[in-house]
Design goal:
The structure is a homodimer of 406-residue chains. With 406 residues, chain A is α/β, with parallel strands linked by helices. Chain A has 2 domains: 153 residues, Aspartate Aminotransferase, domain 1 (Alpha-Beta Complex); 225 residues, Aspartate Aminotransferase, domain 2 (3-Layer(aba) Sandwich). Chain A is 43% helix and 14% strand. Chain A has 14 helices and 14 strands. An 8-stranded mixed beta sheet of chain A has the order 2-9-8-7-6-3-4-5, with helices on both faces. A 4-stranded antiparallel beta sheet of chain A has the order 10-11-14-13. In chain A, helix 5 crosses helix 6 and helix 5 crosses helix 10. The radius of gyration of chain A is 21 Å and the shape is globular. The two termini of chain A are 42 Å apart. The model of chain A has no long low-confidence stretch (mean pLDDT 95). The interface between A and B is large, with 86 and 86 residues.
Chain lengths: 406, 406
């Protein structure tokens, strides 16, 4: 069989995710990996999940093992709607679709919005998982530059004149940079979204993981506030997930959006995989409906991840050569490192792997042929002593590389 | 927001699944529904799943709640490979991808194979869930007629001259007809597939649920046997699932195919939802690795479903008007009823719902403007007394309708 000749044209735009391929290389226990976006497994509420599973299997076992509706479990949709409601904006369960992780939400949004050749505005750099999904649509990406306060909203106007179909961003604790869109820029962005009726995908997997600085409202909330809207009927399409605040293994995410968007997504969801696992929705709901537990758990995650972030930054300050720069996130799982030009992060990765340390080069996160000198570090997954040891090794590799550029 | 103007062109080809919309109407407990493809929930091995979950959470809790590889859990892939291996054909775990139910497999296959306007050969009628997923690709469906022995393979040749990209079928206990492709026709089909190198999607959710008649090998096996192949490297792409033999709520399905197909599907899987729930793969593996239990469970399902099939057929023989015809499946979950022309099954459904009985009209399962006089009955879900009562009511509705045609 000559399979290559049989595959669809769009598959030639596909490639394996660099991140996930690197994760395979780092499976050896001796490798200190800052590559993945993995939560700390020792903080998973294993016992709580066991109790919840026992309880719902005993009470609603037949129901949780059966097929269910594409929209998702009604109680879970109501819970998400309640957690996302804030101030004047009260979100209805009909505005919520449960997905198999937020990656699926991002993927399904492409299917309902994007035609071949459409123009899409994204941050530069942007989330590579979105590009893995959207690239086969053969899109034109308009890149909006970023700084320590997130995308530079003042530079949006010329891009808006290019007739964009959609805008996508991670405004809070961005992947890969860890940076956050400032409140002032959110206000300006909200104003622009209302003015242009531009659909804006707010991907927010990390929003609850803030370790320092003042909280900022979601773009979803600010867009509604700008219009004085009390229901979810604007242009913001919000994607959330339990993966970072509970566990990724259950694959429970959600979309909150105007009803017509949810209605169209439900049709795609039916075609895609019928519905999200009933079992996992019941278990997640049983755990999450205990607000006190969930909030306390998130508080604990924040405490541990704050310590790891601080430890990583402190060790970098001590051991990284002075020519190297990096972001200082107020939350989330990542920071981004920038090497002096013309160093190449993939070449550095080879050296690092030889010392059993791993990270993700960020060139795939950039629009255009830039970012070869950047890489992403995760600080949530490794234990403190491994963070110190791994960053020290990386500092040695970087110093050697800068002395003898590749 | 004028959302309709923003949705992609392909979304205009989408519509909500008739089956799933009818399922919502039938949520009232007084409705006797033969509409869904639901397994009998009282046979779900709830206690066994509880034990398995407890065990794996205790032994590998952190791992089963974490992100995992797109290909799927290695032990589960090996188990599926072993169960599918038969005779000379020994399947390697690398030939297996774990999916979120087999609907996802069908959906992802479209993404790797189908370009706009491609020609695809399907049985007529065919599975509506495949069409829900594939229709937005704006395909040309070539319909191969069927009879009580499945698709009429002798009528394939002219369709093969139209340059088809792919062929899709449920050869065993088809949805919606319940019919099975005979061994002789499988042999002829295998010969054609080898001759034309035509990718053939064998969707096989029901294959293990045989209640009478002689077992037949899968097309996967017969194609390999025809070539004398000992490894999975032919043109058959096999989709299986635990949904009908264990539980649908865990959403565990799989694809078995040549490595290059699996490799391409893994790329789509990464883009689609990263990976299938680690939790559900671990639980399913823990249950299924006990061969004795799983085989005994399937034996029990066969026994109960055989009784329900027989009871439904007997009650139909007694209470359906003689002008009505129906299939007599040897396994699976469904049979299909054909009304005398020009009766319309959707009109009959309205009458039936007024008597609190439901079924699925099959016009959406047909290629071309036919099948308006057909509907599908499920016999696995309802308990015996409800099968008798529901079929009696349906008999009354049919007799009234035939006396006073709509």
């Amino acid at each position: 069989m000559n399979w290559d000749s049989l595959f669809a044209a769009r598959t030639h735009q596909m490639k394996r995710s660099t991140v996930r391929e690197i994760l395979k290389l780092t499976a050896k226990p001796e490798v200190i990996s800052f590559a993945g976006g993995l939560p700390a497994p020792e903080l998973f509420p294993v016992e709580r999940i066991r109790e919840a599973t026992d309880t719902v299997l005993a009470e609603r076992g037949q129901e949780m093992l059966q097929y269910s509706t594409s929209e998702g479990m009604p109680e879970l949709r109501a819970l998400i709607a309640r957690r996302l409601s804030a101030g004047e904006l009260q979100i209805h369960p009909d505005n919520i679709l449960i997905t198999s992780g937020s990656q699926q939400a991002v993927d399904m949004l492409a299917r309902i919005f994007l035609d071949e050749g459409d123009r899409v505005i994204v941050e530069n750099p942007t989330y590579v998982g979105m590009m893995t999904s959207w690239r086969p649509f053969n899109l034109n990406f308009s890149a909006i530059p970023t700084d320590d306060n997130g995308m530079i909203v003042d530079e949006l106007e010329p891009l808006l004149r290019e007739n964009p179909k959609l805008m996508y961003a991670i405004p809070t604790f961005q992947n890969p940079q860890g940076t956050t869109l400032s409140r002032e820029r959110r206000a300006k962005l909200a104003e622009i979204l209302v003015q242009y009726n531009l659909p804006f995908v707010e991907d927010d997997p990390y929003g609850e993981l803030r370790y320092s600085g003042d909280p900022v409202p979601s773009v979803l909330q600010m867009e509604a506030a700008h219009r004085g809207a009390k229901t979810l009927d604007g242009s913001v399409i919000y994607c959330g997930t339990f993966s970072k605040i509970l566990t990724p293994g259950l694959r429970i995410g959600w979309v909150a959006a105007a009803f017509l968007v949810i209605d169209k997504l439900v049709q795609v969801k039916q075609a895609t995989d019928l519905h999200t696992s009933t079992f996992n929705q019941f278990v997640s709901y049983e755990v999450a409906r205990d607000d006190a537990f969930l909030n306390e758990h998130i508080t604990q995650l924040r405490e541990v991840y704050r310590q790891r972030r601080d430890l990583m930054l402190k060790t970098m300050d001590e051991h990284f050569p002075q020519e190297v720069r990096w972001t200082r996130p107020q939350g989330g799982l990542f920071l981004m490192v920038t090497l002096p030009e013309p160093l190449n992060a993939r070449a550095v990765l080879k050296q690092a792997l030889a010392h059993d340390v791993a990270f993700v080069p960020c060139d795939d996160f950039f629009i255009g042929d830039t970012g070869h000198n950047t890489f992403r570090l995760n600080y949530s997954n490794a234990r403190p002593e491994r963070i110190v040891e791994g960053i020290k090794r990386l500092g040695t590799v970087l110093k050697e590389t800068i002395r003898q550029p590749n």
